[in-house]
Structures are given as C-alpha cells and as structure tokens.
Inverse folding.
C-alpha cells in the first residue's frame, strides 16, 4: 500500500515544528549555561594561541614605522645596488622615525637578521640629521660604508615584507640569504634543532623513568584494601599540595655539590671531599627533579586502570595453569596498557613544555626549548621567533598525539 | 559399586577457616566427593560455601585440616599447579583475547603443541555450540555465549576437577534454565567431577547428583536431591529446600520411629521421629504442602484437623490454598486443578489430613 503519511497536526501546527520549538528552549538554556566558560576559553586560550600562531609569520614593524622605504624596497628587484629613490626613502624614514622616537624599534628588527645593524642605524641617524637634499646615496655611504654593500639592502628588503617565513627558518637553524635561498645558519648560531632534540629526549627519559618508578607503586595501591590504598594515594598526591618552586629548590638543597647528599657521601667515605659529584645544574638535575614532580601524573591514570582489572581474571589465569609471572605478562600488563598510554602521554606532553624546573636546576646542559622561548619573550624581545618556536612545539605535540592515536588508539586511553 | 569407585576423589578432612582469627567461617568441614560426581554446595549467602570452593581452588588457605584431591593433600599446592578448572561468577574471560585465545591459554601455558591446541579448542567450541565464534572477543558475545566460553575454557585442558561459583547468577531466568540442562549434559557426557556453588535451590536440585546444604559454616545435610526434599534431616534443610508447613510443638510420647506431639492450641499430631529430644522438649513438625489432602475419607489418615480457608490463589495447574489451623494462619495446601477437585470457598471450614510418614518431627528452630 502506497499511502503517504500525513504530518500530524496539533493546534494548527505540524508536530515537527512544535517539537523543534520545545527543544529550542532547552538548547538556549544549555548554551547560556556554558557561555561563561566558552567566553573564558576564547579570551584566555583561543585568542592568545591564535595570536601567537599569527605572530610567528607576521612582520608589521617596518611597514608601519618606515612606510616609504618599504614601498621603494618592494619595487627594487634586489639584484643590483638599489636606485637613488630607495636611499632617499631610507634617509627620510629614518629621520621621521628618529623624531617620533621609533628608530630604536626599527634598528632592533633589522638587527634580528643582521648582526651589527642596530649600531649601524643608530650611528647613521646622527649623520642624517642635517641632510635635506640629495644625492642621498653618497650621504649614506659617507656616513657608513656598509650602506654601500648590496647585502645590507638585501637584508633590509628581507625584513620589510608583511609576512615572513624567517622566524620559522630561524627556529630550525635556517635563514634566507640575500637572494631568498634557504641556507643554514652559521654553526655558532645553530642551537634550536639541538635544543628541540634535547627537549624531546628529556621528555622521553622522564616518561620512561616515571613509568619504571610509577608502575610498581600503582600496582601496589591497586591491590591494597581501601583504607591503605587511600593513604597511599594521599602520599602520592602530597607533593601536589606543595609549591612546585619549593619542591624544585629543595632538590637544589639536596643535590648541589655542597648539598645534603654530597655531604652524606663524603661523611660516609664513599667519595672524597674533592670528588664531590655534580648532580645538579646539568641534564641529570633536570631529569631527577622533573621525574619526581611528574610522577603523580603517571601513577594516577595507571592506578585508575589497574583498579578496574578484576581479581577474578587473575585468578582465572592461575587456575588455568599460569604461574604469577605468566599471569602478569599475559593478563595484567596488557590490561593495564590504557593506563600506561594515558600516563605516558600526559607526562610526555607536560614535560615537553616544562619551564621552571629546567630554568632553576638545569644549568646550561639541562635547558629545554621553553627556556629559549621565555628568553625571547622577556629578554631579547624577539616575539616572532618565540612564537615560531612555540608553534613548532605545539605542532610537534599534536603530531605525537596523532601518532599515538594511530598506534595505540585514543579510545584505549583512560584517565580514570 | 566396587570399592575403588567409592573412595573419595575430593575430600575435606576437618577443615576450618577463619579470616579474622575470631570467627570461624567454615567449621570442621567433612565432605567427600566421588569421582565423576556433580556435587552442589547450597546455602544462603555468607554460609561459607564460596569459601570452601576458594580453598579447593587454592585462593584461600585452610586454617586447619586437609584438603585431598585424587589421593594427594593439596593444601600447599599453588593454584596454578592444582589442575582445577574454574567457572567464575562473572565469567572472568580475558577481554583482550579472542575466544580462540581464551581457550588456547591453558594449553599454551602447558606448552601443548600448536596443532593439538587447535584441535582441542575446536572440539571444546563444538561442545558448547559456539563453532564459528573463535575470532570474536568476549565483549562481542551475549551473556549466555560468554557463559559457554567460560565453561569451555574450564574444561578444555581436561582438568582433574571443575569448580563453578554461581556461574548462572547473571543470566535471565529462561537462559539460566537452558544453561542448567546444558551443563548437566556436558557433565554426563564427559564424566568430569564437578563441584558447583549456588544459592538457588531449584538449580541445585536440577543439576546435582548430590547436594551439600550449608548454613553458618556447618554442613546441614549431604544427600541426593530427592532425599533432601523428601527426607530433610533438620528444620533448616526442610525450610531451605522447597515450600514447607511447620508447626512448633512439644514432644509428648515417643513410640519407636514415631512420636506424638502437641501443638500450642492443644491438638495432638503423630509424626516420624527424625531429630527430636526427650519428652516435653520442643520440636518442629514439617509437612510438604502437596502431601495434604482436603476433606479426606473417614479413617484414611491418622492426622486429621479442621481448618478455615483464608485465601485461594489460582495458579493454573494448582490452587494455592491458605488455611488457618492449629493456631497459625499460613498453612499452605496445594490443591491440584484435577478433574474432580473439591471447590473451596474462602471462610469455609474444612477437614485436612495427612499420612504419618509425610510429617517429620525435626529439631526446634
């Protein structure tokens, strides 16, 4: 029978419409309830991250502070020495900037790409003061002969574009040469790739160390009766209730060459007074402190997974003839993998971006990429490079997350 | 039966168990299980039956006494060397392994050759009618199918003994009944010795060769299902197995295997003297509802009393009749819905009678 179903009409309106009206109110209420959180996340998280991603390629300073020069440089082909108009624009812009007090910022920006550019520009400023007419080219070369070099102008052209890949190239130890080719930085400036590798290595080591140390603890807690397991969990969490700074500095007290541990070993005669061991302000110090601080992040997800493995499965395994050793490797360990995955990912991601601890106990050899990002944010004020380093870190973590999903499966992860 | 077959295959010799050093959970247990027998431990929760099973499996240690399996004391043998298959209450299948891997597991740890494992897994799956499910994981099976896998896994390595700890508790009624028959048939076909724990008396009666009734850590009676039902040794067993009418009475006179007892309202009843003390001590008279006749012919029964019909419940094949007699108002009679059954009315006064052999004088509760 091919009857067309009539829409049900109630009070002159189709049922579908009435349902939608009834549901809409609910949706508005639900949306209104999450709105504060949504706004909070948008303002404090999404917008700053977006702005950081943008800043890693954004290059507005020359365009706003030296508009004439930027315009002239963009017309210059960059092959031979620039024409007179470029020199004229440079002198005029520098003079205007000097009057507005913004020349220092121009100098800083150029200095990122050319060592010594800051002093060159500041020095030249004084000599341009009374220049009112051309030929500007001669005036500039007289002020400093570097203005007569093609590379100087190529650098200026390079820093005057609105969007630049240079920050990203710098962040992986590369640079653009005058002709726009990607080249390696001089060897003394190649630090970031090494630092990224070291950061990943430290994060991996910390993950493995917390796993080795945390697994037995998690197992112990999961097998105890509630009274004891609660006490043990409180002991695992106790460090959480202490300030991170306090914990890190107490490691300094313990590990430094004149510290508690060295004193103890000298007193016991294990080492001589001259042979005190350097255990902090190096890679080792960073590893020890970070492992201790991040241990709870590993223990808790593993514990929450192990707790759900029923005793009867382990008993079943034993009754089927498997001794405790086989039972552990064939039943308990595979069943606890979701916890290992969750804890491992958590510890790895947190340690990749770790900052305070390496800054305090890392010395030179124990620094991580976050310390360089902080340096560029606070000291060198090269925010573009800081943003590029941060973006690479973010993308790297996302790639690892994606890999984890492919290999282990994110649905297997369990945080409790 | 010859002597060797009568010799116990599993025995508990004066086994005691205490968890806290104050209370005994199992008190001086003596129990023999024959080779090939289906023995059920039946009792209310907390009666110690599961503890006995766990001691047999090796997950609990006996505080004192010996547990013998096939001639050897196994008190000090660890669970993985006992060669006992267990079906757990929640199945305890390994969720990260397929059905095939679950069944192969006990043989892999015993280093059985690969082709042998494959054959035996196939045979075991056939036995529980799950051919074609080898590649599934336990999570993809229904409760009944998981149950079958658990049974197959406990049997596949040909253990000396199979223990089942309330294995059907999680299934719905219909499936539970079906599984009862299946497990019973598997037991009959393989001739394996089974010790089964349950608190469901119907399940115990359906499946077992013998049932061991537990209460408060003490064995109350060990007997075949029909004996247990028809000839309970004490008031607890009579109450626990099936429906039962009881009178609290005082022993007046003991004549050989019979006795005369007087209920509080004055009527005197004659019953089999099973488990009573001296004259003037209290006794519980126990009588099955289906052994009572309403309005009997004169002289047919020694015990005849009059009662008042309080309630009639129509149940199809029989009418459950509640009477008030001898001072208590919950005396139940099952009146068969047969061709010439008497039609009763609520409020009517009737005579009821029963044979002396059907009424047992037991210990006072």
């Amino acid at each position: 029978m091919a009857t067309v179903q009539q829409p049900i009409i109630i009070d002159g309106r189709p049922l579908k419409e009435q349902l939608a009206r009834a549901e809409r109110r609910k949706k508005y209420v639900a949306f209104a309830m999450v709105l504060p959180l949504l706004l909070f996340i948008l303002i404090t998280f999404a917008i700053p991250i977006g702005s950081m991603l943008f800043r890693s390629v954004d290059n507005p300073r020359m365009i706003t502070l030296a508009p004439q020069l930027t315009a002239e440089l963009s017309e210059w082909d960059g092959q031979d020495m620039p024409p007179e108009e470029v020199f004229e624009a440079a002198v005029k812009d520098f003079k205007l900037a000097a009057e507005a007090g913004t020349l220092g910022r121009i100098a800083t920006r150029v200095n990122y790409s050319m060592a010594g550019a800051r002093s060159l520009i500041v020095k030249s400023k004084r000599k341009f003061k009374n220049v009112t007419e051309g030929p500007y080219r001669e005036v500039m070369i007289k002020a400093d002969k570097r203005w007569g070099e093609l590379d100087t102008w190529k650098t200026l052209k390079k820093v005057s574009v609105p969007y630049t890949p240079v920050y990203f190239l710098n962040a992986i130890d590369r640079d653009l040469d005058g002709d726009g080719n990607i080249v390696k930085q001089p060897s003394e400036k190649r630090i970031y790739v090494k630092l990224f590798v070291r950061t990943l290595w430290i994060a991996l080591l910390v993950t493995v160390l917390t796993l080795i140390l945390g697994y037995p603890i998690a197992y112990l807690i999961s097998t105890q009766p509630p009274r004891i397991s609660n006490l043990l969990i409180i002991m695992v969490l106790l460090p959480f209730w202490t300030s991170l700074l306090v914990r890190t500095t107490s490691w300094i007290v313990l590990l430094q060459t004149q510290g508690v541990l060295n004193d103890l070993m000298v007193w016991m005669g294990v080492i001589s007074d001259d042979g005190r061991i350097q255990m902090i302000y190096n890679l080792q110090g960073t590893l020890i402190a970070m492992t201790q601080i991040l241990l709870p992040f590993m223990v808790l997800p593993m514990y929450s997974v192990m707790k759900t493995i029923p005793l009867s499965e382990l008993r079943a395994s034993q009754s089927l003839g498997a001794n405790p050793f086989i039972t552990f490797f064939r039943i308990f360990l595979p069943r606890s993998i979701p916890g290992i995955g969750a804890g491992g990912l958590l510890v790895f991601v947190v340690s990749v971006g770790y900052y305070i601890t390496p800054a305090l106990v890392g010395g030179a050899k124990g620094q991580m990429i976050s310390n360089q990002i902080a340096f560029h944010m606070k000291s060198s004020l090269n925010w573009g490079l800081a943003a590029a380093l941060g973006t690479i870190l973010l993308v790297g973590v996302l790639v690892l997350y994606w890999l984890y999903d492919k290999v282990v499966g994110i649905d297997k992860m369990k945080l409790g | 039966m010859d002597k060797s077959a009568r010799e116990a295959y599993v025995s508990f010799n004066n086994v005691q168990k205490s968890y806290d050093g104050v209370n005994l959970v199992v008190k001086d247990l003596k129990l023999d299980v024959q080779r090939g027998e289906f023995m059920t431990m039946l009792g209310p929760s907390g009666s110690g039956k599961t503890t006995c099973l766990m001691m047999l499996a090796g997950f609990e240690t006996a505080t004192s006494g010996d547990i013998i399996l096939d001639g050897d004391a196994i008190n000090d043998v660890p669970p993985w060397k006992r060669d006992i298959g267990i079906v757990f209450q929640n199945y305890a299948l390994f969720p990260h392994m397929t059905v095939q891997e679950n069944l192969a597991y006990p043989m892999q740890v015993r280093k059985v050759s690969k082709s042998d494992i494959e054959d035996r897994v196939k045979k075991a799956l056939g036995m529980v009618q799950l051919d074609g499910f080898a590649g599934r994981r336990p999570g993809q099976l229904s409760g009944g199918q998981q149950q079958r896998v658990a049974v197959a896994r406990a049997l596949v390595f040909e253990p000396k003994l199979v223990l089942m700890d309330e294995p059907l508790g999680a299934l719905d009624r219909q499936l539970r009944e079906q599984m009862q028959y299946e497990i019973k048939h598997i037991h009959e076909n393989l001739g394996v010795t089974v010790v089964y724990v349950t608190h469901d008396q119907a399940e115990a009666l359906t499946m077992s060769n013998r049932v061991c009734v537990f209460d408060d850590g003490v064995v109350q009676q060990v007997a075949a299902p029909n004996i247990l039902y028809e000839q309970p040794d004490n008031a607890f067993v009579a109450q626990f197995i099936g429906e039962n009418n009881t009178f609290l009475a005082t022993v007046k006179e003991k004549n050989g295997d019979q006795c005369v007892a007087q209920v509080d309202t004055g009527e005197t009843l004659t019953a089999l003297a099973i488990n009573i003390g001296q004259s003037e001590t209290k006794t519980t008279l126990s009588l099955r509802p289906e052994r009572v006749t309403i309005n009997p012919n004169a002289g047919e029964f020694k015990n005849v009393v009059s009662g008042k019909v309080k309630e009639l419940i129509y149940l199809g094949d029989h009418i459950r009749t509640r009477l008030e007699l001898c001072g208590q108002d919950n005396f139940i009679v099952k009146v068969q819905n047969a061709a010439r059954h008497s039609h009763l009315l609520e409020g009517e006064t009737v005579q009821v009678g029963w044979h002396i052999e059907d009424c047992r004088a037991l210990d006072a509760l």
Notes: The domain at 192-412 of chain A is CATH 1.10.3720.10 (MetI-like fold).
